[in-house]
Every structure is written in C-alpha cells, then in structure tokens.
Write a structure and sequence with these properties.
By secondary structure, the chain is mostly helical. Strand 3 (about 545-550) and strand 4 (about 550-555) form a beta hairpin. It is built from 23 helices and 4 strands. Strands 1-2-3-4 form a 4-stranded antiparallel sheet.
Length: about 575
C-alpha cells in the first residue's frame, strides 16, 4: 500500500512538472470549488421575501450588535470595578486603601468601632453579591436575539446567507468607522475592543459562565480582535496601514505595483484577521465551555468555521472598499486630473510648470509641496521648466480644475465635506483636515476668518521659494510680507523645525496652531520667529515677530507694515 501511495504521488508530481506548488494550487482550487458547488446546491431564499429587506436587516443588525456590545462592555467594566472596590476596599486619590485604614483603627480602638467595621464590610460583600443581577437588568440582548432568526425568517441559505453575513459584517464595522472619524482616529480601536469584549462576554454568560469568567473571556477576546485588526488596513476609515503592508509591498518595485499589492494585502488581510480571531476564540472559550478536546483536535475541527469567518472578512473588506475605489477611479479618469503625489521608488522627481501649479487644488499643492518648490527653482520668466529639466519629468497629464469643495474655500473643509471624502482623499488632505477641525464652529462649519483661498497660498510660494535659512528673515523681516501663516507653518514643518505653540499669550498660551493658536520656532540660541493670530493681539491684528540679540524685536503685520 505504501508503494502504491508513493507511485500516486510521483504520478501527481510528474503531471505538473514535479511542482509541489502546482499540486497545492490544484488541491486548494478543488477544495474551494467543492465548497462553492455545495453552497450553490444549498442556496435558497423564500420567494415571498424581499432580498433587499434581508440585506438591510442583516446590515442594521450588525451595526446594532456592535453598539450593543460596546454598551454591555461599559456595564461589565462598571460592575467589575465596583465589585473590586466593595470586596477589596476603596482606594483614595493618595493610593491608600480605606479598608486597611478602617481595619487598623478597629484593631486599635476595638469595641463598637470594630463591630462597625465588621458590619460595614459585611454590607459591602452583600451589595457585591447583588451586582450581577443588577448588571443583568441593565444589559441588552435584543440585537443578539433578533439576529439569530433573520436567516431563518427569510429562508436564506448557501450563498444568500453568505451575502447576508457580509452585510452584517459591514454593518458591524460602521459604528467603529464613525467613532474613529469623529474622534480624529483616536477612538476607533478602543471602540472595536469594547464592542468585541461586550459581545464575547454576553456569549459566555449565555453559555453558563459566571460573571468573572465571562468578563475575563470578553477582555481577552476584545484584545485578540483589536490586535488582529492591526495586521492589515482592510477596513476603510479605521487604520491606514497594517503590519503586513511594509513586508509584502516589497514584492512590487513601482508605486503602482505597491498600491495594487497593498489593496490585495488589505482585503486578504482582513480575512486573515477574522480567521485568526475565530481560531483564538475557540481556545479562549475553554475558559467557560468545558471543552476537553486536545489542542490539535480543536484546531482541526475549528477550521470550517474559521475559514468561513475568513471568507466573510475578505468579502466584507472588498465590499467596503469598493465605493472608495470606484470614486477614486472615476476621479482619475476625469480629463486633466492631477496624478498622485510623488511616491518613493520613482527614479525621477515630478516637476511642474507654473500653469500646472495654478491648476492644482489645495490638497494637490500640499501633496506635491516639495516637488513644487524644486520646480520653482527651475522656472524661466514664463514659468516654464528650463531646458534640460524635461528629461527628469515622469509621464503625466496636465492638472485641471478639480477642486473638491462646496464652500468656496479650496484649502479648508467643513465637517460635512470631510465626511463625504473617500479614505484616499482624507489621506491626501490630512493636514488641511486637521487645520479645518481646529476652525470648526459648533455645527462643523468654517468661520469666515478662516477662508483663505488657494490663490494666496500659490502667491506665497513665490515669496518664500528662495528662502534657504531662517536667518534670511532676521536680516530682512519684510520677506514675510503677504506670506500667509499657513504657508509659513507648512514651510517650517517641511524644513524640519520644531514648531511650538505660543508661551506668553494671555489667551493662546499652549494652544497649537492647528487648534486655533499661534506658533513659534527657536534657533541659533537667541533667534525666534513667531506668528500671533488676531485673537488676543495687542497690535491691531495678526502679526509676525522676529527676535534676535542683534536686531532686537521686530513686528510686522501680514502685509509687511512694521508695528
């Protein structure tokens, strides 16, 4: 029998030119094909039900479950914290345990005081014993219960059920993306952790776990979910890069190739994340489900569920990225669209004529800042690139009028405009978006004072393009005439200076420029370049200040008039 098996293997290797990878590919293809064939055979849907309604319910229920999980986790954390305080004693702001103090005093004074301490601690333990029931009364299970029978009510099986699970996955990520956008990218992962932890703990309680075990299982499951989510950037609006990006993008040498590999890695990486989470969850569930299987048996028997979870994750990522990719493709297909920013890996820098710079939107100017400055050094009097520089340019289309804005402001954005951007647009305009957020009113709109046009920025480049050292400003402060604070800030940032908020302003001390404050840089021991906005100014408006031991303090307004 062994010889027969060996002969079969040799025949298989011979059939594919002794290529093990080909055999593995064939086997994988047969496995996937068999699974799809089985799913097609099982696919069904009630004829009297609306498929659109089914997908809508699955999507909505996914979002509801995400919110429910985060809510339940807040209840779980509160219960655990209060329980620990009641059982172990409250800790004061100084770090001293009140129960230790109480026991120490009881041992000294004894009598009624000792009895009071004993009664108090007994009461604390009695309250702690009731916390579980109180928490159960506050928790919600409506979304989880409602979601259990959606497939059954619609009769969705096979590929219809797969599509519904993808819709539920997209819905489940929606609140996380929203929270991440509103908080400037700071709370997306904590929310994801909390939501996963709450849902996992609820699953454990439903399976018979006690409060502490369910809480521990939830925390560990939330940690796995948050950790695996960093493998790739498969969900738009959550994380911009993943751990696999830097490694796998090296297989492509061109920027276009790297972009394609990144998209593939992000989509497949999301599937890998869900696969790993499912496997890890099977082992973590041993905390409460009494599973006595061996580690290898658990791994093998979990594969069907894990592979399905990976497939759903991959398709969910692909579906969620599709609108942004379609929009980006549509924008790139517009006649006269400006190509993307210069990316590392190009052998020749991208150079622009004056007309091309003037045709750019604010975001495109920011994105190509360094290339524009280099181009200006090579312009002739007509703004054309001088002879010998054309050979250094890459193939591209001439930029056109593609300024994405509805407010008339081509450099700053309202909250609604930012929310309407694709992830690629947000990345391309990240600096402008940060500045805009610092200038929003309560409704997310820009104040009139912030409406500086892109034409001003273009003019500013002409003013500062020859500046090589900040010492030039000390020698001639009027070089700052008609240079906007935004352009100066961008210039200083690109030059690598440490930009600090104002330190001696009555109203703006410690407030960063992008949050509405001023800014300053120090160099050369006694040199200071400072911008003070009109807010809180004692000099009739916004101004620049140049200070050095040689020249003293010189203040000029934004139009070059000495103050």
């Amino acid at each position: 029998m062994a010889n027969e098996w060996a002969n079969l293997q040799l025949q298989s290797f011979g059939q594919f030119g002794a290529d093990p990878a080909a055999i593995a590919g064939q086997q994988a293809g047969q496995t996937v094909g068999g699974w799809l064939e089985n799913q097609l055979a099982q696919t069904g849907f009630n004829e009297d039900e609306s498929k659109l309604a089914y997908f809508g319910e699955k999507f909505t229920n996914g979002a509801h479950r995400a919110v429910e999980g985060a809510y339940n986790n807040a209840i779980d954390n509160s219960r655990a914290q209060v329980d620990a305080q009641l059982r172990n004693g409250f800790v004061t702001d100084t770090g001293v345990n009140q129960r230790d103090i109480q026991n120490a005093l009881a041992s000294i004074f004894g009598g009624k005081y000792a009895q009071h301490a004993q009664d108090t601690q007994a009461a604390d333990l009695a309250v702690a014993a009731e916390l579980s029931g109180a928490a159960d009364g506050l928790r919600s299970t409506r979304a989880a219960e409602y979601g259990r029978d959606i497939d059954e009510r619609y009769g969705a099986t096979g590929l219809w059920k797969l599509g519904g699970d993808v819709a539920a996955g997209a819905g489940q990520m929606l609140p996380t993306i929203g929270i991440n956008a509103v908080t400037g990218g700071t709370m997306g992962m904590p929310w994801l952790f909390s939501s996963a932890a709450g849902n996992a703990a609820a699953q454990a309680r439903a399976g018979g776990a006690d409060e502490e075990t369910a809480f521990l299982y939830g925390i560990l499951s939330g940690g796995v979910e948050a950790a695996t989510e960093r493998i790739s950037a498969g969900i738009p609006g959550l994380n911009k890069t993943g751990l696999l990006d830097d490694v796998l993008s090296r297989v492509a040498s061109s920027p276009t190739g790297r972009g394609a590999v990144k998209k593939l890695v992000d989509v497949l990486g999301e599937g890998a994340e869900e696969y790993i989470s499912e496997i890890a969850g099977a082992y973590l569930a041993r905390l409460w489900n009494g599973d006595e299987r061996g580690a290898w048996q658990t791994f093998v028997e979990t594969q069907p569920d894990a592979l399905y979870a990976g497939l759903v994750g991959t398709l969910t990522s692909a579906v969620m990225n599709l609108p942004g990719e379609a929009y980006t493709l549509a924008r790139k297909s517009k006649p006269g669209a400006v190509p993307g920013a210069q990316q590392s890996g190009n052998s020749a820098p991208r150079l622009f004529t004056r007309d091309e710079v003037q045709g750019m939107s604010a975001g495109e100017v920011r994105e190509n800042y360094d290339a524009i400055r280099e181009s200006m050094e090579m312009w002739d009097e007509n703004g054309e690139l001088q002879g010998g520089t054309q050979s250094r340019m890459v193939d591209r289309q001439a930029p056109g009028e593609d300024n994405e804005t509805t407010s008339g402001n081509e450099r700053l954005y309202t909250r609604a405009e930012v929310q309407g951007m694709s992830e690629e647009e947000q990345l391309a305009n990240v600096d402008a978006i940060r500045e805009s957020m610092g200038l929003w009113d309560a409704e997310g709109k820009l104040s009139k004072e912030s409406e500086i046009t892109i034409e001003e920025v273009r003019d500013d480049f002409e003013q500062i393009k020859h500046i090589k050292n900040l010492e030039n400003f000390v020698e001639d402060p009027l070089l700052l005439k008609d240079v906007s604070p935004e352009t100066l800030y961008c210039f200083l940032e690109k030059q690598g200076y440490t930009i600090l908020p104002l330190a001696q302003s009555k109203t703006l001390t410690g407030i960063h420029y992008k949050d509405g404050g001023g800014f300053k840089v120090n160099w050369g021991g006694d040199r200071i370049l400072q911008y003070h906005p009109a807010t809180g100014s004692h000099h009739n408006g916004a101004y620049y200040k140049i200070s050095s031991g040689k020249t003293g303090k010189v203040r000029i307004d934004l139009h070059g008039n000495k103050i």
